[in-house]
Amino acid sequence: MTLDELIAAAPLSRATATPLFRQLYARLKDAILRGRLAPGARLPATRELARQLQVSRQTVIAAYEQLTAEGYLRGGVGRGTFVDAALPVARQAPPAPAALPGLLRPLPERGAAMAAGMARVRYHSGPVRAFRPSMPGLDLFPFEVWRKLEMRALRRPGPHLGYSAPSGDLRLRELLCAYLRAARGVDCTQEQVVITSGSQQALYLLAHLLLAPGDAVWLESPGYQGACAPMAVAGARICTVPVDAEGMDVAWAAAHHPDARMVFATPSHQLPLGATMSLARRLALLRWATAHRAWIIEDDYDSEYRYTGPPLASLQSLDRAGCVIYTGTLSKVLFPGLRLGYVVAPPALAEPLAHAKAVVDRHSAILPQMVLADFIAEGHFARHIRRTREAYAERRQVLLDALGTRLDERLRCGPTDAGLDLCVHFRPGRDGRFPDEARVAEAALDAGIELRPLAYYANPQAGPACAVDPGLVLGFSAVGAADIRRGVERLAAVIERTT
After folding, report:
1. Please, what are the domains in the chain?
2. How distant, in Å, are the alpha carbons of 238, 438, 484 from that of 488?
């Protein structure tokens, strides 16, 4: 292809914000890299090319000079301008594999697992509405207080705004320790705390740090979908464990998967069924993990919100062997966009975990950590938890009352004493069959309400032992009482239409 043909195929445009010389530079560079202008090819004189393009000569000179400076062109006064003969001859890239169009080569096994790992996890989008699951009430957060604390932090610049320790801001870690000891009975020092970019990063770090390919991991099913991906990407063998009214069935897991090296558990409030792990099972899990030298990741994602008494003591507070790794998040207590979580690691694991954190992102953003430390130290954190606990308790009761009035014959409620969500199970119809939960959820979205079918939380690898009655997960914390009542009316209409 000649240069004239190249220019004709992609003419310069005066209608864009890109300068004409940059457009010409880009076209010539692309032609050289693609082999359409071969090494040693002569380019027109600047006056001639300017005439052809109907641009100023200076435009062509500027493009030629840029290409010459970058090594694409060679030439001089009286000698003409040429594509550098030393450039390798461009070869057409082989066609990409059909399964991965556009990629140079297929992803390796680990890369493919990482790219597909969170495919089943849904992300919130659009305006907040009933009954968005696992979403705190943003209308209750004191954003003006947070803004003032953030501006104050920015008015005192200094070394603290530079690079930080991978484990996170020291003052925040100290304050979190004091809070966790008082509120959750967690036995820790600030040296054991590592601040992470949310609990998802904590799971990724722990899986890759502690698991070898082929190691078995217990995962609750139904359970938190985000827990499976980090384990699978680390090469772990996923072992799904059923859940009942007492939480994870430890005896079943020990009998069927005795060689596990890690357990992921939500003992304080199981997602999505809402069960709290009984003391007998907590002690059994700790005995098993101690005997088998296995790690337990305790995900304590929303334990602040218990409505029938004070928050329960953590599993970590019962651990005497150093096998429990306690993880928490600020997404449910404050707001998800903050992206701050934490790990309380056994003392010997804290330093390796901090070094692993540095590999992933050096350290989590420092400014939000500083603001959160002030937020806690000045009492805003405790006040916010008290306020939201009261508000969520009211919203929970509104939901229970509305369901009892409109849908008691169609739905039965699971445990309701904790968390931000309510799990409801369908009652069988007169023919003994259950409604199609996926169809109900889809129709509900069309009706302007957002919920999740219980099957969403089931691990694809789970067997019959993990099966539960069909149902829905309804969040009650994100919107106020009026929206909840309207949402129940719409849900009742949807169920009537679809069953």
Report:
1. 3-83 (1.10.10.10), 144-379 (3.40.640.10), 383-498 (3.90.1150.10)
2. 37, 17, 6
Taking the C-alpha atoms of residue 52 and residue 31, their distance in angstroms, rounded to an integer, is 18
pLDDT digit string, tens, across residues 266-306: 999 999 999 999 999 999 999 999 999 999 999 998 888 88
CA–CA distance, 334 with 136 (Å, rounded to integer): 7
> Whose structure tokens read 């030298």?
293
Angle between the N-to-C axes of helices 481-498 and 437-446, in degrees from 0 to 180, rounded to the nearest 10: 130
Asked if the model's pLDDT at residue 121 lies above 90, the reply is no
- In residues, how long is the chain? 499
CA 362 to chain centre: 18
Q: Residue 62 and residue 19: Cα distance in Å, rounded?
A: 11
Contact 118, 226 (CB under 8 A): yes
> How far is Cα 205 from Cα 357, in angstroms, rounded to an integer?
7
Backbone angles phi, psi at 467, to 5 degrees: -70, 145
pLDDT-based confidence at residue 384 (cuts at 50, 70, 90): very high
Asked if residue 328 lies in contact with residue 334, where contact means CB atoms within 8 angstroms, the answer is no
For residues 74 and 64, what is the distance between their CA atoms, to the nearest angstrom? 9
Contact between 37 and 31 under an 8 Å Cβ cutoff? The reply is: yes
Question: What is the DSSP secondary-structure string of 212-250?
Answer: -TT-EEEEESS--GGGHHHHHHTT-EEEEE-EETTEE-H
Query: Which is it for strands 471-475 and 452-453: parallel, antiparallel or unpaired?
Result: antiparallel
CB-based contacts of 32: which residues, under 8 Å, 6+ apart?
67, 72, 83, 87, 90
pLDDT tens digits, one per residue of 407-461: 999 999 998 888 999 999 999 887 778 888 989 999 999 999 999 999 999 998 8
pTM score: 0.81
As a whole number of Å, the CA-based R_g of the chain is 30
Burial of 338 (0-12, 13-18, 19+ CB in 10 A): buried
CA distance 357 to 281: 32
Computed over every residue of the chain, the mean pLDDT equals: 89
